[in-house]
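Bench notes, afternoon.
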Amino acid sequence: MKHSDNYSYLAEALRTFTMFLINLKLWNFRIFGTTGSFDIQKPDLDLDFSKGVNVLIGENDSGKTAIIDAIKMVLKTHSAEWIKVEDEDFFRDADRFRIECRFKDINDDEAKYFTEWIDWVVNDKKIGEPYLTVYTTFRAGTIRLCLQISKRELMMLAIY
């Protein structure tokens, strides 16, 4: 297979996906934090993504790996390395951090598994669009794992 064929294959595979990550919000996670109180209305990073391939470009220690690791933590993905909460994941002296991922373009087959947790947001055309919001909050000092589910959102609350 030629090099250009690899890109064609990747592009075709990406067209088959429907649900995609549209937004990532971080509070007190690694370099993305503020001193003082934890304000749920003011994330320290509010990053929008586009459908398809997104590229993170930046200098060393600018937060690229933090963004990737945050997504891996909230989705509980597996790779060759073990991802777990470390003291360095907390911004300075913060006692908790939060990661929120919002997904868009959920097809009917995907939505049937998340019916209770889908948010409906009205777009510019005044049409309701389904979104899935998944978030995790880690708190320092405890070794308890909880799963809380409400009607409008899926909340995975893991306390470290």
